[in-house]
Amino acid sequence: MKKHLKSLFICLGVIVILAAGILFMMNYDPDKPAEPEPNDDNIQTVYSNEDADKIVIKSSDDTLTLEKNGDTWNVDGINSDDIDTMQLDVLVSDALKYETSTVVTDTESADYGFETPSLVIEITSDGSTDTVTVGNKSAVENSYFATVNGIVFTMHETQYRNLVTGRDDLTSFRRLEIMPDDISEIVIERQDEKIRLYIPKIERMEGTVWHMSEPYDVMASDDFIDSSILEQIGSISLYDIADDFGTERAKLKVTEGDTVYEFRISEPVDGRVNVEFNGKVYDEPASLFEFIDAPIYSYMSKLVSYQHILDIDEVKLEYDGITHTIRRTDSEGNSFEADGAEADTDLTKKIYQAIIGMIATSMYNGEEQGETLMKITYSGSVNEVIEFKAINEYSAAVIKNGISLFTVGIADIDHIKNSVNEYFEIINEE
Predict the structure, then answer these.
(1) Which residues lie across from 388 on neighbouring strands?
(2) If you ran DSSP here, which 8-state letter would residue 35 be given?
(3) pLDDT surpasses 60 at 21
(4) How many of the other CB atoms lie within 10 Å of CB of 257?
């Protein structure tokens, strides 16, 4: 009998569990949001004023006076254009409303520090002023003791930090952001020299991107511009206002899309420079403008005889009493003649790469020039004459269209000569 009762109880238990499970599944809705947990925080507003027209915030460091003009708050002594509006909005919001989870019943403890307050906020509306006094930091909470209209409460440290916002905090924000990829022209004026770099109309996605028009009409160094100029210009923020400009070091003009930015740059002092922009002066890291003092050689492409194959119809080489011509005979650069004879395409491309690949070793500094070691004449949509004249037994001057620019190693010129000689020997054998 007991055995049967035990089995009956087990069966009844299973039925109850199954019924509870069925009831749960019938009422289960996966899309229904979970009920929120009860909030035990007793947040209450101890003071709020939406009609205030003046706020005075006094701290040990400064006194900020804010006055409302229509819907706009102005800060006494600071031009409205120099204020971070988001920071100002936070300051006004925290000055006019005080919420707390702790209202203190004992209103007269010396521990609160109201006799020597760390912060006093005077809020005026219609000629009537309320005062919020902030004293010591609480020993048990991340908050400060404060009082207004006889109520003592704790103010969260975040609100306290916002209320001690100083003039530097209100005026320190990013005022400028130039996108490096959209820069198309850079002009630097330093001492008696002007450097103009620009991106010409791109006909093809090959070769160099940047070009120099002043002080020389040559290709510019893409690597130097990318690594030492564009990224630095993109980091100019005009974040901090400076007191005065100082001594002018250079002028900088940057074109980004349809917008032109013009700056005056001061001499560096203790790793900082002053930057004048739109009549105002800002403080920036000197490292952003190190390129201004770079030698002109850094700005220039070191390829002394580069011309894209599709920009020329013919290249003539003259050296040691010999004259050779290489001519492109199609529009794609896949068919050539060498001294009037049909030439192997791959071999011609390789010799042309050798001709245009000569690298400058330094700028020309007025050294006396001797005999002409080699002359290269390009003809086509680009016409250019390059001469190499000996300076000494190791180096030669590079004269492009009559202007002496670089020096190259004589060994490099000899290498070009030998390569061209071998090329034409092969052509003649064929």
Answers:
(1) 374, 398
(2) P
(3) no
(4) 10
Cβ atoms 184, 288 nearer than 8 A: no
CA–CA dist 272, 297 (Å, integer): 25
* Minimum mean pLDDT range among 103-117, 262-276, 343-357: 103-117
- DSSP alpha helices (H): ranges in 97-166? 157-163
User: What is the strand order of the sheet 280-285 is part of?
Assistant: 218-219, 211-214, 193-198, 183-190, 248-256, 259-266, 272-277, 280-285, 240-241
Give Cα 292 to chain centroid, integer Å: 17
B/e letters for 102-131, b = 16+ CB within 10 Å, e = fewer, are bebeeeeeeebbbeebbbebbbbbeeeeee
Tokens describing residue 141: 């909470």
**Beta carbons of 364 and 406 less than 8 angstroms apart:** yes
Dihedral angle computed from the Cα positions of residues 66, 67, 68 and 72, in that order, rounded to the nearest 10 degrees? -50
Once rounded to an integer, what is the mean pLDDT over residues 320-333? 95
> For the whole model, what pTM was predicted?
0.77
* pLDDT tens per residue, range 217-266: 999 999 999 999 999 999 999 999 998 999 999 999 999 999 999 999 99
What is the rounded distance in angstroms from the CA atom of residue 306 to the CA atom of residue 355?
8
Q: Contact, 156 vs 241, CB < 8 A? A: no
